[in-house]
Amino acid sequence: MQTIGEVTLRAQLYAPEADYQSWINYTGSNPLRARVFVFNQNESNWGNRWGKIEAVSVDSTDGWTFQWSVLDQTNFQFVDTLSPVNDVKKATLDNLNFGCYRVRMQKGVVDTSFIAWVIINPLRFHLVKTADGYVKEFEYTCDFLDLRAIPRNDTKYDESLRYVHNDYFLCPHPYTGDLFRLSNDIKCTWEGNDGSSYITAKPQVRIYQPPAQDTRYSVQITDAFGNSASDQIVYRTINTRADFKIFLAEDTIAGSYKSRYKETTEGEARLWARFENTSKNGVKFTWRLSDLMLNTADSAYYLRTTTDSAAVIEDVQYSFPRTYKVTLISESPRFCIDSATKEIVIKPSKMGEMGKNAFPKVITPNQDGIHDYFYIKVDNSDTIQSIEYLSLRIYNSRGSKVYEYIGKMADGWKGWDGKTLWGLDAPTGIYYYYFEAKGYGPFTSSTGNTSGQPAGASTGPRKVSGKGYVYLIR
């Protein structure tokens, strides 16, 4: 809107078909405000997208004269391009290329001009790929994957496939020539059907650690003026991704440990471990089940190799408390390597937290399957189970020893069955016991051992001792 004397001018330049409209505010010695109309050109209208602007008179009545001019950007002068359009209320200029245009409107004492830049904004984008849509082999290695647009100057590709985009447009001041740079940045959004997503400011992306499964990528490019282009490509993987699950079972005297496996990474010594391979696209697997191997016996036990991706490594024993690192190395059909390392934390046995309460108060050794044995029980919280060594002596009320066990729990001890040292049935009565038990734990060592015990450990094994009584009823 412009005012001359008492006449308010509401004349304007319009571009109803423009994809983007804005203003340029020139500053300096000759301030000026010019309209900007952007017309996007892409695959849908390539070669058929031109500018079109319309000038509307002050009062929307006939009788106006319109004179269109275009800026000569060498001499910075407006040159009349058309003969004047007379006695009308509006005038249209179409089929316009990039440039700066001016319209002069005259009627009576009113004489005013408006200036606008018309920008033809091209965007074309195609990815480097094979004819059937796959990433070309020279675009990836085991370590990275490159997705990129066909370069604009790469003559190996047809011109219609090459990348076209203007990062900016120069719109100088129409009268002074002072440069004004109208930026046109792009945003590239890359999305894989594996859930991955990347955003770049250039039509290319490098993906490190490419996926271990065939993946389709879609890319959408959008510029500052709302123009967009898209493409798709499929990466046919050569990679593998190593991974595995850990299941642990704490040793127990109450039944088989195999029924007690659960998915966890820590527990009390002694532990049994089961490893399930969940790697992707692997054909050869190497397991390092401990990060401390001191001799050939250790290597034979803790190193496993298999070509079966479904193979389960189980019944691996960890006797001594420490943090073990377990590594799985997976190799793909194209010899790419990946590894995964996880830790197993073996804690010292909670040996003896129940003390004498770990033993029953009554036994009835009548072979009915109920309370037939005097043994260390496992309570609901599993506090008594990882016992390496037990010394147990049982005496009758006269002080005579009727039973003794000294040995490791792993030797298959089931408990006192009510028989005396001479093989006779002990009579009904009260009996007294004394015990000492040891849990698995570090012990002093200068050389280490074949079960993963680190050299130089100084803390002794967990011990507990006590006494109590039990009623035997027949």
Description:
This protein has one helix at residues 296-302, and strands at 2-4, 7-9, 12-14, 20-26, 32-41, 51-56, 64-72, 77-80, 85-88, 90-96, 99-107, 110-124, 144-148, 164-165, 168-170, 181-183, 186-192, 197-200, 204-208, 215-223, 228-235, 244-250, 262-263, 266-268, 271-277, 284-288, 303-306, 312-318, 322-331, 337-347, 362-363, 387-395, 401-408, 429-439, 463-472. By secondary structure, the chain is an all-beta fold. The chain folds into four domains: 2-122, Immunoglobulin-like (Sandwich), CATH 2.60.40.10; 125-166 and 184-235, Immunoglobulin-like (Sandwich), CATH 2.60.40; 244-347, Immunoglobulins (Immunoglobulin-like), CATH 2.60.40; 355-472, no CATH class. The strands form nine sheets. Strands 4, 5, 7, 8, 9, 11, 12 and 14 form an eight-stranded mixed β-sheet that branches. β11 (99-107) and β12 form a beta hairpin. The longest helix is centred in the middle third of the chain and has 7 residues, at 296-302. Residues 1-9, 379-385 and 443-460 have low confidence and may be disordered.
